[in-house]
Amino acid sequence: MKRELLTDKELDELSAELTNWDVSADGLERSYDFGNFVKAFAFMAGAALHCERLNHHPEWSNVYGNVHVRLVTHDRSGVTNLDATLARLMEELSSA
């Protein structure tokens, strides 16, 4: 998948789509509250498989049932289609 920076219009559309995410040209951020550590870790393990497949890895942290995620494509210094794809996959995993 090519690492193309999203345009301002694409970022606006992404913000409307991913309403639980903070969307900016500098990155995508979201916190998830799963209620317990096992559910949070299961989410991270599932997301990790997608991260490896995409060769795109988040900045994230976990405290008990909370997972904070920040997505940015460092080699492009901004948000790309890879970040948007990974955010969508994380949304799917979080509601499973």
Write up what this structure looks like:
β1 (22-24) and β2 form a beta hairpin. By secondary structure, the chain is α+β, with helices and mostly antiparallel strands. The chain is built from 3 helices and 4 strands. Helices cover 44% and strands 22% of the residues. The chain has a 4-stranded antiparallel β-sheet, covered by helices on one side. The longest helix is centred in the middle third of the chain and has 18 residues, at 37-54. The protein has a domain at 28-94: Transcriptional coactivator/pterin dehydratase (Gyrase A, domain 2), CATH 3.30.1360.
CATH superfamily of the domain at 28-94: Transcriptional coactivator/pterin dehydratase
| Spatial shape | globular
The N- and C-terminal alpha carbons lie at a distance of 25 Å
Order of helix and strand elements from N to C terminus: HEEHEEH
The average pLDDT is 96
- Percent of sequence in beta strands: 15-25%
Second CATH tier, the architecture of the domain at 28-94: 2-Layer Sandwich
Q: Number of helical runs? A: 3
CATH class type of the domain at 28-94: Alpha Beta
Q: How many strand units? A: 4
Radius of gyration (CA) equals: 13 Å
Helix proportion of residues, in percent?
A: 40-55%
Give the structural class.
Answer: alpha+beta
The side-by-side strand order for the widest beta sheet comes to 1-2-4-3
Describe the structure in brief:
With 96 residues, this protein is an alpha+beta fold. It has a domain at 28-94: Gyrase A, domain 2 (2-Layer Sandwich), CATH 3.30.1360. It has helices at residues 8-17, 37-54, 81-94; strands spanning 22-24, 27-33, 59-63, 66-71.
